[in-house]
Write a structure and sequence with these properties.
Layout: H1 5-20, H2 31-34, E1 46-48, H3 50-63, H4 66-69, E2 73-75, E3 92-98, E4 103-109, E5 113-119, E6 124-127, E7 130-133, E8 139-142, E9 148-151, E10 158-164, H5 166-171, E11 177-179, E12 189-190, H6 191-198, E13 218-219, H7 221-234, E14 243-246, E15 261-267, E16 277-278, E17 282-288, E18 291-295, E19 298-302, E20 307-310, E21 316-320, E22 324-330, H8 332-337, E23 343-344
Bound molecules: 2,5-dihydroxybenzoic acid (GTQ).
């Protein structure tokens, strides 16, 4: 005879309480939340307007120095992940402000970082003794465990988007960090040297890779932009993403950063993309143009320097009024190497 339902519920509860003390718990109570038919992300669609955040960055500039803050950054927190310092489940995003004359002191960490320049010109980042002066639209890499410091010898404030794999590295409990001996690294190369050695589909004959990260760490906007324009002249556009390139490690042809996939795309004037979705929640930063991203039926109007996020597996459509250029990043390389990545359109 099966037990009456009320008795069964009571007995189960007693059993759960008993095993709970020894850190055991029944799978059948959580199975359907763990193994879901499709991705069940807490990540929500959202757009951060430049016109909203720029005054707040300036206010932050009056409240604390870059030196005191170590990094003066406003973290872009996903509304579904508040308090967890992340824009998607696996990726971090922040807007870093560096004022004229300031220095953000040298340190290194196991997390990889990208800088995508949104505002200003003339600040630099130094990576392992090489210095690069940055302009709007440039993509710059800080490889895992490389010393880096930032400085602004120009006469204007500079803002860039920091993208890091912080949540991913935290998940794996593989994070290390140390401060540099000196606030600024001694510089033995200029960034022009890096571009000359690795930025021309060639490499120095003596070069031997020390890591999976691209030895080219500065991808100037001019070159990326020219490639996209040429693609537009010669090629047929994709129904979802217009013209889209991914940044590569020029030596291996693989991703520029092993944990973060980075892309730049051009949407011609009047472009109306068909719905697209993929398992890599993606962060977009607008370089040029205006348009909208319709995510799961909700429309987010975008313009230059805005940042928005498209969560895993939610269908979204990109539309451009004026011709638009969008930078984006996600954990796609990680998902692909683990055979997890999917897309649909
Ligand atoms: O510039 O090294 O936004 O370590 C967060 C953590 C920037 C940086 C961030 C960091 C940095």
């Amino acid at each position: 005879m099966p037990m009456p339902q009320a008795d069964a519920t009571r007995e189960r509860k007693t059993f759960y309480d008993k095993i709970d003390h020894a850190n055991c718990t029944p799978l059948w109570e959580v199975l359907h939340a763990l193994v879901t038919a499709t991705p069940n992300t807490p990540c929500r669609p959202y757009l951060w307007n430049w016109s909203t955040v720029w005054p707040w960055l300036q206010e932050a500039g009056e409240l604390i120095t870059a030196r005191e803050a170590e990094r003066r950054v406003l973290v872009l927190e996903n509304p579904g992940l508040r308090g967890r310092s992340r824009i998607t489940h696996s990726m971090y995003a922040g807007l870093q402000l560096i004022l004229p004359g300031e220095v953000a002191p040298a340190h290194r960490h196991s997390q990889s970082a990208l800088r995508f320049i949104l505002h200003g010109q003339g600040a630099y980042t130094a990576v392992d003794g090489e210095k690069v002066t940055m302009n709007v639209g440039d993509f710059v890499i800080t490889p895992s465990w490389s010393f880096h410091d930032h400085g602004n010898p120009s006469d204007q404030p500079m803002v860039w988007l920091d993208g890091l794999d912080l949540p991913l590295v935290e998940l794996l409990d593989a994070q290390f960090m140390e401060k540099g001996e000196h606030e600024r690294q001694s510089i033995n190369h200029s960034a022009g040297d890096n571009l000359a050695r690795f930025g021309n589909t060639m490499k120095p004959v003596e070069y031997r890779p020390r890591s999976r990260t691209s030895p080219l760490f500065w991808y100037p906007y001019e070159r990326t932009r020219a490639a996209l324009e040429t693609m537009k002249t010669h090629g047929s556009q994709h129904a979802c993403w217009g013209y889209k390139l991914q940044y590569t490690n020029p030596v291996t042809g693989d991703w520029a950063i092993p944990t973060i996939g980075t892309f730049m795309q051009l949407l011609p004037r009047g472009f109306k993309g068909i719905p697209y979705r993929s398992t890599d929640s993606t962060v977009y930063a607008v370089v040029e143009g205006t348009g909208r991203c319709v995510i799961d039926g909700e429309s987010f109007e975008f313009g230059p320097k805005d940042v928005f996020v498209c969560p895993s597996w939610m269908p979204y459509q990109l539309e451009a009024d004026e011709q638009a250029v969008l930078f984006s990043y996600s954990d796609r390389p990680v998902q692909q190497v683990l055979d997890l990545w999917r897309e649909a359109f």
